[in-house]
Design a protein that fits this description.
The protein has helices spanning 18-27, 39-45, 62-66, 86-91, 104-120, 122-130, 157-167, 192-196, 218-224, 241-249, 269-272, 288-306; strands at 9-12, 29-32, 49-55, 73-77, 96-97, 149-153, 172-176, 187-188, 201-204, 229-232, 255-258, 277-279. The protein has 317 residues and is α/β, with parallel strands linked by helices. The protein has 2 domains: 9-100 and 289-306, NAD(P)-binding Rossmann-like Domain (Rossmann fold, 3-Layer(aba) Sandwich), CATH 3.40.50.720; 104-279, NAD(P)-binding Rossmann-like Domain (Rossmann fold). The strands form 2 sheets. A 7-stranded parallel sheet has the order 8-7-6-9-10-11-12. Helix 1 (18-27) packs parallel to helix 12 and helix 5 (104-120) packs across helix 7 (157-167). It starts with 8 loop residues before the first strand and ends in an 11-residue tail after the last helix. The mean pLDDT is 96. It binds NADP nicotinamide-adenine-dinucleotide phosphate and 2-keto-D-gluconic acid (8YV). Residues 79-80, 100, 103, 107, 153-159, 176-179, 205-208, 211-212, 215, 233-235, 259-260, 282, 284-285 line the site of NADP nicotinamide-adenine-dinucleotide phosphate (NAP).
């Protein structure tokens, strides 16, 4: 029988989904970074840490890595790994894994749900009925979705899944990426600004990190225009949130539907109080089915590493 002494010791650096944490605890000795935050207790366990279990929002920087001399692997519970200093990990031959594909459907579903919600004003309509406002007269008209023009910023796994869903709504689809996809049937634009000028709905689904920080800026929002809607299911950092608040306040765009924010879980009052926004708490992959699949994959990567088997889903080199 395996004893706790023979189990590898790993560190969690996020508040993990409890069933995932339980399965980690069955396999490893798990130290919780949040509860070993004080320097003395962390210094005691740090030399023994061989793996990190992170979430898509975790920050694993060079300073943390330098405190973990025995670290062998980093497993991210999420497809986005913009919080991990992959270059610093790679310099020490520490592989990083993530959970691609298993969450694609859910994130695409929520992207479309947000698009429909902001266009058809579903949360506002729900509030209207609950407040008994209906007895005073009808709700204001909304924006038609079927047949409208959709622009997708980032046509990867999730962007393509959103496009397939939008085809079912008869939408015309265009996209921007750094590399044009010759096999794609959709219209390519070389920049987010050029794309925004040609669409009714701009859906953002790129990775986060330095390369996309502020990609959706004041110029892009101006190009989207007073009848245009922004939907962000990528990372808060991809949209210049200050520019977005100003654009919303000045009627530069018609509305925004956002699952991600610059400083989660803090959402500026100007957005929370605005009538033409729909806000969700970074929940695009948060279904029972998908969380289970993400947990299995994130655990599977750690198990593969410690069993000396090939990793299931290492992040690309
Ligand atoms: P993916 O398959 O790697 O696709 C990323 C796409 O973004 C690619 O088409 C890439 O094309 C494009 N891209 C990268 N940098 C760009 C830039 N500077 N300008 C324009 N396009 C750029 O990733 P995925 O699986 O679709 O996931 C995408 C992201 O969704 C994740 O990284 C994560 O941040 C986010 N996400 C959010 C949630 C949530 O809960 N809200 C859940 C899951 C994922 P090029 O390389 O050609 O530019
Ligand atoms: C998760 C995500 O909510 O996959 C990602 O990149 O942002 C989401 O799926 C997150 O990783 C879990 O905390």
């Amino acid at each position: 029988m395996e004893t706790s002494l023979s189990k590898p010791e790993i560190l969690t650096v996020a508040k993990l989904w409890p069933p995932y944490l339980e399965s980690l605890q069955e396999t490893f000795v798990v130290h919780d970074r949040i509860h070993t935050g004080d320097a003395a207790s962390f210094a005691t366990i740090a030399p023994r840490i061989r793996g990190i279990a992170a979430s898509g929002e975790s920050r694993i920087d060079a300073a943390l890595l330098s405190q973990l001399p025995a670290l062998e692997v980093i497993s991210v519970f999420g497809v986005g790994y913009d919080g991990v200093d992959v270059a610093a990990a790679r310099a020490r031959n520490i592989p990083v894994t993530n959970t691609p594909d298993v969450l694609t459907d859910d994130v695409a579903d929520l992207g479309m749900a947000l698009l429909l919600s902001i266009a058809r004003r579903i949360p506002q309509a729900d509030k209207f009925v609950r407040a008994n406002e209906w007895v005073k007269g009808p709700l204001a008209l909304a924006r038609k979705v079927s047949g409208a023009r959709l622009g997708i910023v980032g046509l990867g796994r999730i962007g393509q899944a959103i496009a397939r869903r939008a085809e079912g709504f008869g939408m015309s689809i265009a996209y921007t990426t750094r590399n044009k996809r010759p096999e794609s049937p959709y219209t390519y634009y070389p920049s987010a600004k050029a794309l925004a000028a040609e669409v009714d709905f701009l859906m953002v689904i790129t990775p986060g990190g330095a390369a996309t920080k502020g990609l959706i800026n004041a110029d892009v929002l101006k190009a989207l225009g007073p009848k245009g809607y922004l939907i962000n299911v990528a990372r808060g950092s991809v949209v210049d949130q200050t520019a977005l608040v100003q654009a919303m306040q000045n009627g530069v765009i018609a509305g925004a539907a956002l699952d991600v924010f610059e400083d989660e879980p803090n959402v500026p009052l100007e957005l929370r109080n605005h009538e033409n926004v729909v806000l969700t708490p970074h929940m695009a992959s948060a279904t029972w089915e998908t969380r289970r699949a993400m947990a299995d994959l994130a655990l599977g990567n750690l198990q593969a590493h410690f069993a000396g088997r090939p990793l299931l889903t290492p992040v690309p080199a």
